[in-house]
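Budget justification note: compute hours in this period were largely spent on complex prediction jobs such as the one shown. Inputs:
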Amino acid sequence: MRADVPHGLRRVGRYSLLALVSAVVLFPIWAVLMQAFKSGPDALNHPESLLPTNLTLDTVRAAWTEGELGRALFNSVVVAVVVTICVMLVSLLSAFAFSFLQFPGKGVVFVAFVATMLVPAEVTVVVNRRTVESWGWLNSYQGLIIPSLASTFGMLLLRQMFLQLPKELREAASLDGVGNMRFLWEVAAPLSRPTLGALGLFTFLGTWNAYLWPSQIIKDRDHRTIQIALEGLSGAQINRFNLVTGGLVIASLPIFAMLVVFQRQLVRGLTAGAVKG
Amino acid sequence: MKRRLRDVPGAVAMLLPSMLLLAVWTVYPLVKAFINGTKSCDSTGTRCTDVGWQQYSNVWSSREFQDALAVSLKLALMTVPTGLILGVGLAVLADKHLRGIGFFRTVFSSTVATSVAVASLVWVVLLQPEIGVLSDLFSGWIPSLKNPGLLRDPGTALPAVALSSVWANLGFTFIVVTAGLQSIPRDLYESAYVDGASSWRRFTNVTLPMLTPSLLFIVVVLTTRALQAYGEIALLTQGGPNPEKSTTTIPYLIYGENSLIRNNLGLKSAAAVLLFLVSLVFAVVQYRGFEKRVQYAR
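Corresponding output:
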């Protein structure tokens, strides 16, 4: 008999507990959804009603136009996609150098790379904002994108993957006269597809969700990301207060869809730091 | 020797992009922040005079910094143990072979993709004193939900922020602990079971020790997130309620819209460097403290 398969009464108890805890965890999301699908006056007069009656898309539509969320979503997609692709490329290159190439000072350079992970963004933003300002990059895509590319996480993740590839693979390729770039592009990268997927998803989410950096360098409506646009909606007066719930729905939908599709990659990326010794 | 040098041009070319990026956006700003911390600048930040390293000790011992440090540490104390216990609890609860368990796992991990802005605004909506859902439902038990509102009461503002971040981090802790649980070899449980260990004994003597790498990872990440809390403060409380500044964390002191030192590059940089050092000390202490107890499953 397996110890982890409950039976009978214990099984009922376990299901009830699971259901109860799920209700608590989901309550905030449910409450916001119910507010978002009520009409404006309904949300003001009956905030406590949590049952899906008299549903309407008015609030979501109003949030979309007043918050210019279409524009904001577009900006977020552009920034997150470009950052994701660039981080994957840059990480592939450096991970390859650290795993397959021999050069003097490799150990020192590697430690220096890893050490940069200890520096939190909260420390570098003061100076980075000034750099971006002096280059005329405030309120621009390049201001949002380029500084977000500096990260070591991807290199570490891919290096771990590369080091697990059999050595004979590289040797055989060398004998056939396959150069570094071709080996990386045609052998190492395709073999690391799951890790690359996790890195990509992780980078995309991180960039999409970023708040501190965009809030410091974006002031105009043309370049603000969805996160910053949401903040604008929450500043409305009390009788327009429910608009933010519509905005929350619009901002979260694409991400929840992604989470459902890419659950496995997400778990892989999140646990990379934990399970492995 | 020749082989070693043959790779050098290729290595340089491949490392160049990341080295440039890290140099410009991580190393330079860190070094520059250390230097700026010794300067006193006008509000534009262009004309600076040297005031020396003692500015760091001045900032450290200033009331504003000490208050913000206390808020940041309190936030960590409120969020890290709670987040850890809830994460382990949820993961253990869902670690059973039951029909439909996948559904519950998805629910428990659902907050992982919420950004700090989305999570914070969800709680702004729930806790809004006039029309917030929670305020409306529970004001009978907790009157301050309505008047003045949890986020506007100096005593409850920080716990309310903590509530929001615990909820937002729940998905992350759940996923990490679940992965940790699944990497524990089943035969360990089976032998404990055969030896007649109760389920509580199996939890304390098998599960918890085997989970320590995941737990360490969670403690470090949650502590870092608490010490770096900015977005949740900007969106939930703007550092207030004032004049107590009950939720002004160190990052909010540095970057907040209505922060006193907002236009003072020298003080901002000094505070940022001190934040870096505090986070560093925490990470080192946590790794050291756990190291002896960590068991890597292998």
